[in-house]
């Protein structure tokens, strides 16, 4: 028990960092470079935390609230997620709604902070972010509903824990559809190719990066930390859905989940290396596709019974 | 003193102070009227809160001179549930209105009358009295909406409201008349609500009315009450009137008035056996209202129209949840249905608090900046800290995000839906899943709409010179705003307690609906369960509020000395406020790429052409698609046809008197002919000023057997 708790804590601390490093490394290998060390992200964060803050004259307290609430909500989402068969720190019926809405709160204040600068680029990024967010939400909720029925569970820990094995045996087709839909949600919510290019250098084409142009030093570090947490959280969601932990020992399953998250990072790296970013006007269509995929999952599940 | 008397006297006190204060000078009169509303509101709110837990409904019949009418008032948990927001929001808005409008004693008196008439609507237990109070409420609201009638826009809005409201009254009149006529045939020649219950208690009576009769009555009620409740398609008056009315009146209208439409429907649902389609139609209206309402809301330029369409959305959420709750109960999923119903009812309260807050906040902004156009606002948070904070809290609440109260109620609905998704049979489960996804979509769009409102109105730089001069409103406005802000936070933290107060209301709704249902079906402790379910959410809410609040305060202190510079504009150094993203541009991506064309604003563009383009322009105008596509062509056609009747418009008093005389003679002629035919044997009403006995109708026993 104690071992699982320790492993869970370790995974929550190490997972986000390792995922970022993993993606960078994968992309470097594809590009024929050696790439930065796996823990480069930590050094970047430490460097940013040591730097001073410069604020825009236009901004108010909302500008400070953006990074803080972004981090707090991402951490809350992480607290709600089980790791392997180890239950989440916070678990109650309907916690998946809190999970989705907490991330929504983070988005609200990230966008509000962007608008607080009065910069047209940040407004542009914010508008895109909330539009895509509104389209990702139904896919996420439909998926949760399908999971709730497939596993007959009310909380994330019960859904994604051991009961998924039996669910895959009974309704694999619909869970596959949800998995595909959530892959798209993961890429969209974390501003990844093909939705957004995290390394782009043209503000006009950015989504997520455009919103943080004015954040400096520690605030930028908070934002990077929050987005790595979000990436980890969504990967865990996908891993919990896809990997049947069955009757694995709890500590082992925690490690398996961590490995799963790293595998997700690897695939994100591969996707980013072989695909190009879509034109912005095509992006909503892909989001609609993910919603429809989730709807297929629901119909398959209900028709199955 | 019993609770019914307390509530009634509180309402009477509010109205009486409004009119009695007119003998004072203008400043004093307005203050006394507002004070009366605050005191009466506080009194009424306490009484209503206690009445929520009452076990047996109270009724009181008073003598009344109206032929065919009886003055029957009553109080039960369902009334108390709606009375509470009437008193609370009414009191806060009255205080706000005193500073917002200044010394306008007649407006203050009208406002008090408006509150009082809503109290009477909720207390009335007789069709006649109900309609009378309903009409007074409608007219009082009209007087308040059309206050600034020198403005053509306001006159138009008032007109739209008046027409819509009277279509609603006509529908209700028909609905009540049909019921009365039917009951008359069955020997209950009365419009008293207590007599309507016969349709439920005696299977014979409901069978005689049949499916068609019940459908007609509920259809008329849906139209009549739906117009007030802003059901999609019948909502056309709502954005107009809310934008035109003074802000504290818009706040009351949005927070309470439109809820009374809902009250009417629920009252009928409790009293009468509802047709089986009722839940489905309710949820259909609801889902359309939620999605289309918010899609229109996020494209408006007028801050108050944005809020008004958001009311359509929130009413849609409530309708959807209620309709689904009724449907799930019909499928035997009582526990889950109870959770959904509790969520819907909690959302009624929450929406009253947060929409009251938002409209008052918008009023404060409009007062300070002198414009309702979001694209001229901006940068107000620094200048108006209290108003700004209130609007941000309200926006987070309305977008259904934690840690505020809007989340608590939507969360309950989602949890209820997830239970149905787990337990229901195929189609019902799929219905719940779809509803959850659509609600989530509406939530995502609401996030867009309200981050846009906050971002454009409060953040960034002022987009207009007038806005740059804005200052924080006086204490008379910021204090009510702070009270509403506190209410929203408290409603989130204490949501389990609020839900547990809903026990008897959910019980009343759960026992209702089906033909000849027993008075109180056990609702399986669903409400207590919902309250327990909510407690972790409320704890997380409280923790979030504290952590985030402390972190922001700390960081503000820490960055006080941080160097300040220009916003980074990617190397461009001469950025001006006019280069900021505007409200229209913020919603443009969604509007043009995701929404269907008929939901988009009308746009006329003249593109720059040629090598040396000379001129280019783009005009866009937000117009309600329902008005534009259906009502405008329809009404124009009707107006054309009615041109034939213009002959009767002589413009001379004598002619009109003649018309009246002819109408009266024809009316009496018809009655006497009918009486001669001997068809009408029902006894007339008791004579004037007779004290009514407890059961004043002398029921002809002979009629029972027919």
Compile the SSE list and pairings.
The complex is a heterodimer of chains A (305) and B (706).
Chain A: H1 2-30, H2 40-50, E1 55-56, H3 61-80, H4 95-116, H5 120-151, H6 156-160, H7 164-189, H8 217-242, H9 250-274, H10 283-304
Chain B: H1 3-20, H2 26-51, E1 58-62, E2 71-75, H3 77-101, H4 105-123, H5 127-145, H6 152-185, H7 193-196, H8 198-201, H9 203-228, H10 237-244, H11 247-271, H12 278-297, H13 303-330, H14 334-369, H15 380-383, H16 385-398, H17 405-423, H18 426-458, H19 465-468, H20 475-493, H21 495-501, H22 503-510, H23 526-558, E3 564-565, H24 583-593, E4 602-606, E5 617-621, H25 625-642, H26 653-676
Helix pairs in contact in B: 1-2, 1-4, 2-3, 2-4, 3-4, 3-11, 3-14, 3-20, 4-5, 4-11, 5-6, 6-9, 6-10, 9-11, 10-11, 10-13, 11-13, 11-14, 12-13, 12-18, 13-14, 13-18, 14-16, 14-17, 14-20, 14-22, 14-23, 16-18, 16-20, 17-18, 17-20, 21-23
Give structural notes.
The complex is a heterodimer of chains A (305) and B (706). Chain A contains ten helices and one strand. Chain A has 305 residues and is mainly α. Chain A has one domain. The radius of gyration of chain A is 19 Å and the shape is globular. With 706 residues, chain B is mostly helical. Helix content of chain B is 69%, strand content 3%. Chain B has helices at 3-20, 26-51, 77-101, 105-123, 127-145, 152-185, 193-196, 198-201, 203-228, 237-244, 247-271, 278-297, 303-330, 334-369, 380-383, 385-398, 405-423, 426-458, 465-468, 475-493, 495-501, 503-510, 526-558, 583-593, 625-642, 653-676, and strands at 58-62, 71-75, 564-565, 602-606, 617-621. In chain B, the strands form two sheets. A two-stranded antiparallel ribbon of chain B has the order 1-2. In chain B, strands 4-5 form a two-stranded antiparallel ribbon. In chain B, a hairpin with an 8-residue loop joins strand 1 and strand 2 (71-75). The chains are: A mainly alpha (305), B mainly alpha (706). At the A-B interface, strand 1, helix 3, helix 4, helix 5 and helix 10 of A face helix 16, helix 17, helix 18, helix 23 and strand 3 of B. Strand 1 of chain A pairs parallel with strand 3 (564-565) of chain B, so a sheet runs across the interface.
């Amino acid at each position: 028990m104690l071992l699982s708790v320790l492993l869970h804590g370790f995974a929550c601390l190490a997972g986000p960092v390792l995922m970022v490093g993993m993606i960078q490394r994968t992309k470097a290998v594809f590009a024929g470079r050696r790439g930065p060390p796996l823990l480069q992200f930590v050094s970047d964060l430490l460097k940013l935390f040591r730097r001073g803050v410069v604020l825009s004259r236009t901004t108010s307290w909302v500008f400070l609230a953006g990074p803080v609430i972004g981090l707090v909500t991402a951490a809350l989402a992480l607290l709600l997620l089980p790791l392997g068969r180890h239950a989440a720190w916070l678990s109650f019926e309907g916690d998946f709604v809190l999970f989705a809405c907490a991330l929504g709160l983070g988005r609200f204040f990230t966008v509000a902070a962007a608008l607080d600068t009065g910069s047209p680029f940040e407004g542009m990024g914010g508008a895109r972010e909330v539009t895509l967010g509104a389209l990702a939400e139904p896919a996420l909720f439909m998926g949760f509903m399908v999971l709730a029925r497939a596993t007959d569970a009310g909380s994330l820990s019960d859904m994604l824990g051991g009961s998924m094995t039996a669910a895959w045996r009974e309704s694999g087709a619909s869970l596959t559809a949800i998995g595909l839909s959530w892959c798209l949600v993961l890429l969209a919510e974390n501003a990844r190719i093909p939705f957004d290019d995290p390394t782009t250098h043209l503000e006009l084409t950015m989504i997520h990066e455009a919103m943080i142009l004015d954040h400096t030093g520690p605030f930028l570090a908070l934002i990077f930390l929050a987005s790595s947490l979000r990436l980890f959280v969504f990967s865990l969601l996908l891993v919990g859905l896809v990997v049947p932990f069955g009757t694995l020992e709890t500590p082992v399953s925690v490690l398996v989940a961590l490995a799963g998250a790293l595998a997700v990072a690897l695939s994100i790296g591969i996707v980013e290396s072989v695909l190009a970013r879509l034109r912005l006007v095509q992006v909503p269509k892909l989001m609609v596709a993910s919603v429809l995929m989730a709807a297929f999952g629901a119909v398959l599940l209900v028709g199955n019974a | 003193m019993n609770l019914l008397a307390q509530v009634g006297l509180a309402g009477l006190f509010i109205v009486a102070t409004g009119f009695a204060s007119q003998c004072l000078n203008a400043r004093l009169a307005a203050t006394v009227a507002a004070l009366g509303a605050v005191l009466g509101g506080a009194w009424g709110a306490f009484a209503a809160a206690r009445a929520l837990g009452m076990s047996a409904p109270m009724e009181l019949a008073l003598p009344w001179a109206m032929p065919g009418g009886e003055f029957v008032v009553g109080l039960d948990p369902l009334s108390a549930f709606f009375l509470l927001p009437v008193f609370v929001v009414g009191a806060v808005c009255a205080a706000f209105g005193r500073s917002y409008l200044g010394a306008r004693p007649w407006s203050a008196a009208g406002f008090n009358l408006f509150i009082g008439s809503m109290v009477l609507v909720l207390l009335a237990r007789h069709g006649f009295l109900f309609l009378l109070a309903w009409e007074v409420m409608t007219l009082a609201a009209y007087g308040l909406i059309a206050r600034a009638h020198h403005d053509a826009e306001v006159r138009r809005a008032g007109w739209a409201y008046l027409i819509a409201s009277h279509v609603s009254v006509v529908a209700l009149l028909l609905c009540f008349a049909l019921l009365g006529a039917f009951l008359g045939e069955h020997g209950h020649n009365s419009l008293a609500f207590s007599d309507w219950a016969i349709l439920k208690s005696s299977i014979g009576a409901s069978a005689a009315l049949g499916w068609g009769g019940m459908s007609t009555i509920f259809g008329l009620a849906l139209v009549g009450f739906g117009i007030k409740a802003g059901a999609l398609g019948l909502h056309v008056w709502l954005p107009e009137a809310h934008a035109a009315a003074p802000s504290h009146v818009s706040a009351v209208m949005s927070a309470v008035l439109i809820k009374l439409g809902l009250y009417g429907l629920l009252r009928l649902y409790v009293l009468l056996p509802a047709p089986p389609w009722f839940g489905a139609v309710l949820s259909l209206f609801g889902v359309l209202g939620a999605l289309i309402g918010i899609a229109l809301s996020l494209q408006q330029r007028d801050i108050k129209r944005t809020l008004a369409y958001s009311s359509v959305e929130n009413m849609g959420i409530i309708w959807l949840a209620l309709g689904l709750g009724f449907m799930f109960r019909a499928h035997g999923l009582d526990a889950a249905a109870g959770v959904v119903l509790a969520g819907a009812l909690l959302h009624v309260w929450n929406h009253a608090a947060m929409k009251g807050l938002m409209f008052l906040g918008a009023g404060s902004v409009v007062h300070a900046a002198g414009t309702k156009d979001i694209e001229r606002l901006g940068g107000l948070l620094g200048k108006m800290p209290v108003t700004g904070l209130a609007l941000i809290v309200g926006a987070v609440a309305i977008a259904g995000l934690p840690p505020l109260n809007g989340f608590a109620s939507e969360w309950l609905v989602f949890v209820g839906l997830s239970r149905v998704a787990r337990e229901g049979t195929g189609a019902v489960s799929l219905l719940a899943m779809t509803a959850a996804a659509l609600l989530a979509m509406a939530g995502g769009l609401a996030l867009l709409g309200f981050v846009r409102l906050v971002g454009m109105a409060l953040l960034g730089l002022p987009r207009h010179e007038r806005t740059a001069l804005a200052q924080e409103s006086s204490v008379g406005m910021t204090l009510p705003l702070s009270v509403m802000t506190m209410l929203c936070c408290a409603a989130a933290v204490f949501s389990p307690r609020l839900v547990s107060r809903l026990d008897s209301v959910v019980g009343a709704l759960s026992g209702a609906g089906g033909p000849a249902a027993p008075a109180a079906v056990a609702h399986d402790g669903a409400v207590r369960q919902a309250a327990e379910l909510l407690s972790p959410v409320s704890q997380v809410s409280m923790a979030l509020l504290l952590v985030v609040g402390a972190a922001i305060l700390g960081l503000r202190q820490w960055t006080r000395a941080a160097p300040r510079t220009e916003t980074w504009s990617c190397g461009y150094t001469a950025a001006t406020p006019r280069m900021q993203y505007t409200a229209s541009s913020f919603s443009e991506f969604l509007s043009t790429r995701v929404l269907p064309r008929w939901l988009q604003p009308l746009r006329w563009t003249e593109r720059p052409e040629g090598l040396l383009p000379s001129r280019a322009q783009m005009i866009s105008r937000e117009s309600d698609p329902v008005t534009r596509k259906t009502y405008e062509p329809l009404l124009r056609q009707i107006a054309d046809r009615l041109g034939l009747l213009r002959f009767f418009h002589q413009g001379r008093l004598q002619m009109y008197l003649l018309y009246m005389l002819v109408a009266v003679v024809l009316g009496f002629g018809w009655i006497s002919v009918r009486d001669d035919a001997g068809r009408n044997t029902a006894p007339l009403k008791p004579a004037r000023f007779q004290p009514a006995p407890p059961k004043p109708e002398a029921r002809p026993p002979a009629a029972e057997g027919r």
